[in-house]
Every structure is written in C-alpha cells, then in structure tokens.
Amino acid sequence: LRLLEAQLQDQRREHEEEVEALKNQVDVMKEEMEEQQQAFLQTLQLSPEAQVEFGLQQEITRLTNENLDLKELLEKLEKNEKKLKKQLKIYMKKVQDFEAPQAVVPAERRWHERNMQVAVQRKEKDFQGMLEYYKEDEPLLIRNLIT
C-alpha cells in the first residue's frame, strides 16, 4: 500500500512538473505572439515601400538563422562521418589481419589440406567423432563453420 502511495505521489509530482513546464512554454509563446503583433501593427503604419523593406529585412534575418542552423548540422554530420570512416578503417584492418595468415599458407600445407578435405568428405557418411587439425587452421575452420 505504501509502495502504491509513493508511486502515486511520484506520478503526481511528475505531472505537476510537466504542467508547470507547459505553462511556461505557453507564456513564452504568448510573449512571442505579442511581439509579432506589435511588429505587424508597426508595419501596417509604414508606407508600402517601407513595408516591403521591413518584410525583406525579416526574411533575411530568418534565412540567416536558418543558414546558421544548417551549418551547425553540417558540422555535426561531418564530424560523425569522420568518426565512422575511422571506425571503418579499424574494422578493415582487423579483417585484413584475420585473413592475412590464411593467405600465407605454404603450398605443401594447401595440398595436405585438400587431401584432408577429400578424406573428410568420404568419411563423413559413416564417421562421427573428433577431427585433428593444426592450431594455425583454427580461423579457417571457424570461418568455414560459420559459412
């Protein structure tokens, strides 16, 4: 019962905080609307040429602010792109490091591997149990198991 009361009080407090934040937001919007109404009334009192100039000035201000926001977004995206490219290089290096030892297998061992594969394929039908392999072949075996 006390747990439910505590949860109810927490929810009530959160709700009151949300209501307060929304009231503040409404107040800010009312102030902005009043400022816009004042600016609109002032422009109506201006001559037609002055109204056009004022409108252009407002549009220039709006576009300048929009450009600044876009520049900031572009900088964030470029920073993220650099980070992702760096991660890609790290992962590519890891893949190359993983595949490099497999590429340097001597011809003699490759021939032995082919013979082992053939033997395993033939015995596969009637043989179950453990197989012997070289420690160096472990990444290759794991890759083949996955694929």
Describe the structure.
The structure is a single chain. With 147 residues, the chain is mostly helical. Among the domains are: 1-45; 49-101. 86% of the residues lie in helices and 0% in strands. It has helices spanning 2-45, 48-103, 107-123, 138-146. The radius of gyration is 36 Å and the shape is elongated. Residues 118-124 have low confidence and may be disordered. Residues 1-94 form a coiled coil. Keywords: Coiled coil. This is Unconventional myosin-Vb.
Mean pLDDT: 82
Helix percentage: over 70%
How far apart, in Å, are the first and last alpha carbons? 56 Å
Order of helices and strands: HHHH
What kind of sheet is the major sheet?
none
- Return residue spans where pLDDT drops below 50 for at least 5 consecutive residues: 118-124
Question: What would you call the shape?
Answer: elongated
Helical element count? 4
Provide the structure class.
mainly alpha
Radius of gyration: 36 Å
Instruction: Give the beta-strand count.
Output: 0
Percent of residues in β-strands = under 5%
